[in-house]
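MOLECULE: protein
FOLLOWS: sequence and fold
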Amino acid sequence: MIFMLCGTSDARELAQSLTRQGLPLQASVVTPSGAERLEAAGIRTRVGRLDRTAMISLLQAGGYRAVVDGSHPFALEAHANAMEAAAALGLPYFRYERQSLIYNSHPRLLLVHSYEEAAHKAKELKGSVMLTTGGKTLEIFAEELLGDPDIRLTVRLLPCLENLEKCQALGIEQRNIIALQGPFSREMNEALYRQYGTRVMITKESGAEGSVDEKLHAALDMGLYVILIMRPGLSFGDGGTVFDSFDEITAAVKNVLLMTREEG
């Protein structure tokens, strides 16, 4: 049995691909909505965050033989917990990561390497700022940008209760909250930028499947500034292998499961 962390749409597709290949797996997601989509595809799923200790206990109790990490490219804590839990039990660890996109230089495309740097850059630019990086790091931007009379901070995030409560706690006004489930078309992005008079859009380099291209190019073509937070570097060392192809990771997982079966 494979234990798989699923945090993106392409991870969900990978889980389905692995099961079609006859590889039984248990998926793990953070939100109930993510579980619903996987279970609708016939994949057994658990819900909730796992720290390193909880993951080790779960892997031991379930008798899992491999860990496949399909969590979001920016989910560094999830990556670390999965790698460490697999290493603690001597299990093979496989990381699936969607390909990075290559962006040509553009005078209004500003590349940064942290949420804090993105917030500082937006503070310098002023105007109507649309934040599309989710709810997890909202406090970084709220602290830097709220209260500045020359900045209107608009946040676009998933319409879950946790996000809305966090916005309220941070003092983000209801009129500045766009609670919608993506993906968004180019036309939808353009309409939202016009509606909120956006001057600066902040996003993450999460890969093609993250719909970054649509909102980024729409913003640049409309004359907006785009602050792009680059994917964080993560050293996998000897703890695992990184794949960006369904076929390659499937072959690798099949091979290691066959080997462990023969050894058993």
In short: DSSP finds ten helices and twelve strands in the chain.
